[in-house]
Specification:
By secondary structure, the protein is an all-alpha fold. It has ten helices and no strands. Helices cover 57% and strands 0% of the residues. Helix 5 packs antiparallel against helix 6. The longest helix is centred in the first third of the chain and has 17 residues.
Amino acid sequence: MVSQWDFESTDKFNGSNWQTLNRLVALANFQFAQDDDYDSNAPRQCSYLAGSFTGPALDWVASRYAAAPNTFPPFNRFVEETREAFGIADNNITALLRRELDDLSWQSDTPVFFSEFDRITHALGITSHETRVAMVEAKLPTSMKTLLASQALSFANYETMRERFNCMWAMDPSKTKKVTHPAKKPRCGSCGKKGHTATDCRSKN
């Protein structure tokens, strides 16, 4: 019996989120390695990945197999065809990553920003501390640059910069401060005044 997990709704390839496709392919290959039922079974392997398609990607795979219902390429070729159909072939990945890096803006949720920044720069092979520090500094808002200047903070090491920003984020009381609202005063059902209930009303007969 085939052991197969269900893809979460967020784990769907819609034709534009190419990072998700790469992750789904990796997960599929892992599943194939764990389950003998997928060995050299192109129809089963292709169908497994296609089960994670939605929107334009699902329309594409449906039309593809409508034209040739009994023709299933090897899994790797199917992945290549999918990427080519949506302009995400390997030779375009660098350009897509560059665009994603350019579009990445500073977020108040500092750990999220650095997680995304690390993911993209790692994929692009950007490892120089000097380069990564300069790239982060270019994305900082004016208020953050002013804060760093007031504290005379400068960074030569990217790891030090990331750790310092994450610590500043973790220690920011504005994120952990709970907003408390005063309790609503009850309204008396007998006299209509606030501050007590009908049971405690002094004006009742």
